[in-house]
Amino acid sequence: MTATLTPPPRSKPKAAKRFRAFARRWWHQLTAMRTALLLLLALALAAIPGSTFPQRSISAVDVSAYYDQHPDLAPWLDRVWAFDVYTSPWFSAIYLLLMVSLVGCILPRLGVHWKALRAKVPDAPRRMSILPYHRTLDVEANQSLARAVLKQRRWRTTVREAEDGTVTISAEKGQLRETGNLLFHSSVIFMLVGVALGSLMSWYGNRILSEDKSYCNNLQQYDEYGLGAWVDETALPQFCLTLDDFDAQFHNGGPTAYDAAVSYEAAGEEGDYALEVNHPLNIDGTNVFLIGHGYTPVVTYTDRYGQTQTLHQEFLAMDAAMNSEGAFKFPDANVDPETGVVDEDAEVGFDAIFVPTFDDSTAMLLGTNPELDNPVLALTAYTGDLGLADGQPESVYAVNEAQIASGNLEQVNDEVEVIGVGDSMTLPDGSSLAFDGVEQYAVLQVRHDPGGPVVLAGAILLLGGLLPALAVRRRRFWIRWNPDGTVETAGLNRNDYDGLEEECDELTALIAPGHEPSQASSSDESIGGRQ
User: Fold this and answer.
1) What 3 state SS string does 244-263 have?
2) 69/53 Cα distance (integer angstroms)
3) Mean pLDDT for the chain?
4) DSSP-assigned letter for residue 314
5) What region does 265 belong to: left with phi over 0, alpha with psi -120 to 50, or beta?
């Protein structure tokens, strides 16, 4: 009777081992380059809603307008962060996963590449004839000359001497290709970090500033602004800026130069600066850019009681010829000076179009020249309730259309009236609007973006890594002096490189001047299809 040995039951791995195996498997999956590419595609797809729907960080007014236009859909979109895409949890999760994937993919490769740069060049195989390029020299080759030639051609070399007298020179070139690859992939990390810093810590504000006007750096004085998620609006740099003079130059209907003379005060210090396009003023790490210009018509309204009000109103350009639209509003007009009674239905407003160069020889109102040459105002007057007392925000560049539609504002003139500088428009109640002149304004953008230098560094790394990654070819070359007196040379291509044979023939001819490069050994002829 034979006894059978039953193997002991295999014990189940402990929970810690199972967790480590699970984590290791998913870590390798996450840090694979294929996963990084998929996450990059997912990030691009996730950014589509950010360009489709208005974003609060860019314009809260547009988001409110979207709510008014789509009252049923907007709340549902808001629940999935459609109006805050770039700070949403799902976008941030993809972003962080992509960062982790790239870092986990690149860091190990950096270590391997660093070791490869410091390691000796691998020795030639025992049978050099199996390599794609192989030559047996029929003349003598000098070892010192071989080392000098390879050094002059910037090959990294290693010399080995065996106990049987064999001497081998191993040479390698083209490791800059892998360096370029790593720099290129590292540049993506820099750009992602820079964009993330910009999204979280940057802020900007746009301001239209007329000549001889000032403003200080706080959100209440900006026409439009945006804040990063980590920006404290109370911690903005404290400074004030004045536009002393502005000059716009044109040629053939287009601007050629904007020059703004500004003065500023920051931290108790005062200074002057010539602000130009692409030459910003830097104040406490914040840049002030000149990004545009426009015109500010100056008008004086005289009400029925003879009280006057002068208004400097910036207009927004409608086209490249600087034909601009705007409005003049006088909610305090027609107040009886004797009783002080305010008649809310006697408020006055004007919708206006400003034309820098008006050609009265044609029937066209709008001009084609942005320079100030015969400027005019085309006016439509309204009286009634302007709707400014309801507390709702409205555009300063147009009379409230809802008030017109409801009949609270009544149009006074049947046809648009065009007046030039020095002329006036008289209303039926005896009040008038005089066109006093035109000033210019500058469009300023104040911006602080700590992620900009990081993105710039990433762009430099990208360009610095892309060229060697595409142009450099990695290859190896060996020379062996055998104990029997024969000399062999061989080459190996580590990448697609059509010029390997020509380069190795050239090196062989330099090392052994009497050798004919066109002569191949019999072993080469057997693998000629591989050369």
Assistant:
1) EEEEEEEECCEEEEEEEEEE
2) 13
3) 86
4) -
5) beta
